[in-house]
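In line with agreed milestones, the collection of sequences with tokenised folds has grown. A representative record is reproduced below.
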Amino acid sequence: MKTTGIHHITAIVGHPQENVDFYAGVLGLRLVKQTVNFDDPGTYHFYFGNDTGKPGTIITFFPWPNTYRGKIGDGQVGVTSYAVPKGALTFWEGRFTKFNIPYEKAERFGEQYLQFEDPHGLQLELVEREEGEKNHWEFGDITSDVAIKGFAGATLYSSSPEQTANLLHNLMGLEEVGTEREYRRFRSNGDIGNVVDVNVTPVGSGKMGVGTVHHIAWRAKDDEDQLNWQKYIGNHGYGVTSVRDRNYFNAIYFREHGDILFEIATDPPGFAHDESYETMGSTLKLPAQFEPHRTKIEDVLLPFQVRELD
């Protein structure tokens, strides 16, 4: 079996307005869905992506304002990588300077990266890639010629790098590209969210909290494919959950042997089935079981706005 790559990445952050200002206002991603954590309806669940909310472009957040800071380490996605069009890094250097966002330049596997942090400590980077369709969501000064396309990939911090690498290659079907310094690189056959680096040296255990990634989700093309993954992963000794209905996809979860929480999520039905393309992300959407409690939920959630910062 082979996954085509990353479906989404989910992280824990702080104040919702700071989160929205950075990912929409600075990075120019579209807020394609505002809903709640289905396991904790007093917490927002934000989804940011390209103009259509395509799998492979979606980063999601649980905002936990005024709570403890986490620690990035083994058992987590250490760095989330975004792809921008060829020639766009100069624009992003200027944009980071404009918004006083510190950044560093780095090179890995022959590619140039801009590395930076979000306001709550998540480690991010941009890299130019030919692959992947343009993002037609234009916001502020960001045009489609420079807009973030979606994920380039991720760097995994594992407590057992060899076992994590074996899982990616032998079970999930990613091709091993090579090794450079402390990284082993793997690639899927998708055009976005398709490059995963594994840090070969453990860095010490991470701690879940603000500024850390909660889990990484991989793509299944539909429900049937997901059930095949569930059986396949389970038959190889991993404890896999039952299918969970997340309204915009179905999900199964398992913790791999390097302690990273993996999810396998279906591409359909997507984010426009309860809103139109034009209105995605503009209002709070609740699953049916929470709709009778809307007033109580809205009273708990902090207000925010999607606003242009240019």
Remarks:
- The chain has five helices and 16 strands.
